[in-house]
């Protein structure tokens, strides 16, 4: 029983990571028909930034204050990367989705190579303040505390994005633009502002997810972003491209199934099952759980 | 045909100076086909100007080019200012509202949200006008756009187009696919609205045109072949038959109460 609880809660934590990363990816695709694959590289860079900032102390000791500082600055760093990517690379290629996609792939490869070159490909172990590296006993299961941090952060992001989409004018523009971008323009709205906003938000959540992924994995490596990217990609397709709630539900399904299968069957099988789920959804329900259109 | 062409030239010459919108030598090429081939016409600063023609002659394409949704060549001047080449959202902000052929109501947004999205300048929205024209929309303001009937969606699309005090409303086939009773309702509303906002209207329903339009333009094979008073066109059965392929007088007779 305690193992089940542990797997379930860490699975939900992993789902939180996937969701944070996938939310931006999904909204950007819904509005612009572009997958920002460079987000994987944003996550990696921000994870390194976070790691470096968290370990700035003279003794290399990571205090709570330094960790919060690292989380905040990594979020800003990711947002800045998203903003620059959209304004410099994506905007000049307006409505040329294939070229936009290729640019993001190129950026991802280049940035990951740059990080490997500069930082080396070895693991940087992320030490944590004791309250975070400890575990809490839930129904007999010793659940690492960072799981709760990730879950709480994901819930806050989900709630903020949902409120932002429902209650603000930009949210209205994004929701309408996901349905019919041309008509939004034909109502006198410069939809490009929403593009920049979403790229920046997507980058910021990827940045935040970078530090949390580092905490979850216990270490930072140049391929951290790409591993999260692959499963988040599966999540947004299963959830339905452009749907925030769909991404949340799919993240839970993928991560929990992955966690249980990796434990009970054999490590790696869970990852394979996630890909299998993707295949099943593409065959049976290509629009995803809450997607409106077919892809 | 030659005499109609002369009409066109005369009409353009007469209207150009005081025209609200003047389009000169408009060309649109889409995926290799030359759809609009040098169309020139003017839209009067008051009332409804109808753009007519058989299916596939380029009417919708012309409207989409005016609103900047597709690339075009030629000059489009609104109220003295050149709007051709501007991006769509700027053209709309210059004062051209657009009601597209298939309504394009946002299905996942409520009626109120569809209208709120269309708000341009704070304090200038004509909610009174649109709710007067379409009281049903006020009642259904919390309903999702996708759950409205075709007629209600059309009313919402027109309301969206009338919400801002624009210089010109460009409206594409507002009665298409609607039940006769709803057609009457929509035409009534457009007639009232045309007193405050001039319109460029693409429409197939000749009875609707007879009630609404003061001026008429006829398009054939991508250019304008008639420009003149709507009554002259609709009153001349031989001409409507030649240009539109339908007889107008029957429609007229049925129309008159």
Structure description:
The complex is a heterodimer of chains A (295) and B (257). With 295 residues, chain A is mostly helical. Chain A has one domain (2-284): ABC transporter involved in vitamin B12 uptake, BtuC (Orthogonal Bundle), CATH 1.10.3470. In chain A, 74% of the residues lie in helices and 4% in strands. Chain A has twelve helices and four strands. Chain A has helices at 2-32, 39-54, 64-90, 97-119, 130-133, 145-167, 169-179, 181-185, 192-217, 224-239, 244-264, 269-284; strands at residues 124-125, 135-138, 141-144, 219-220. In chain A, the strands form two sheets. Chain A has a two-stranded antiparallel sheet with strand order 1-4. In chain A, helix 2 (39-54) packs antiparallel against helix 3 (64-90), helix 3 (64-90) runs antiparallel to helix 9 and helix 11 crosses helix 12. Chain A starts with a helix and ends in an 11-residue tail after the last helix. With 257 residues, chain B is of the alpha/beta class. In chain B, 47% of the residues are buried. In chain B, strand 9 and strand 10 (223-229) form a beta hairpin. Chain A binds chain B through residues 169, 172-173, 175-176, 178-180, 182-191, 292, and chain B through 67, 69, 87-89, 92-93, 98, 100, 104, 106-109, 113, 116-118, 120, 160, 164.
